[in-house]
Amino acid sequence: MFQYAAAAPSGTSSLISFIVPLVLMFAVFYFLLIRPQKKKQQTRNNMLNALQKGDKIVTIGGLHGTIMEMADDTVVLRVNDVTKLTFDRNAISHRVDTPSESK
C-alpha cells in the first residue's frame, strides 16, 4: 500500500506531461490540416476575383460555359448559342485554359 504514495509524480512534472502532448497535437493539426486548407481557400478566392467576361469556366456541377455577365455574387453563363444560365459565383469550380491561351 505504501508503494503508491511514493510513486506519485510531482505536480509540475504532471502538468508539463499533460500540456506538451496537447501543444504537439495542435501543431500537427495546424500544419497538416488548417494551414493547407487556408491556402487552398485563398487560392480559390483569388481565382474567383480574377474572373472576367469571356472566361470559360466549369461549375461545381460540371456544367461548362462562358461568362457573359458578372455581378458581385452571381454570374450569367452562356452554355450554348441560345442558353444563358445564372449561377452563384461560389458555384464556379475552375477556369478552363484553352490551348491557344497557354502559348
What report would you give on this structure?
With 103 residues, the chain is an alpha+beta fold. It folds into two domains: 47 residues; 50 residues, SH3 type barrels. 47% of the residues lie in helices and 24% in strands. The chain contains three helices and five strands; from the N terminus they run H-H-E-E-E-E-E-H. The protein has a five-stranded antiparallel beta sheet with strand order 4-3-2-1-5, with helices on one face. The longest helix is centred in the first third of the chain and has 39 residues. It is rod-shaped and about 75 Å long. The chain starts with a helix and ends with a helix. The mean pLDDT is 87. It is a single-pass membrane protein. It is found in: Cell membrane. It holds the Pfam family YajC. This is Preprotein translocase subunit YajC. Belongs to the YajC family.
The count of helical stretches stands at 3
CATH architecture of the largest domain: Roll
Order of strands, main sheet, comes to 4-3-2-1-5
Number of DSSP E strands: 5
Give the topology string: H per helix, E per strand. HHEEEEEH
Secondary structure class reads alpha+beta
- CA radius of gyration is 27 Å
Helical amount: 40-55%
- The share of residues in extended strands comes to 15-25%
3D shape:
rod-shaped
User: Overall pLDDT, averaged?
Assistant: 87
InterPro entries: Preprotein_translocase_YajC
Family: Belongs to the YajC family.
Pfam families: YajC
Transmembrane segments: 15-34
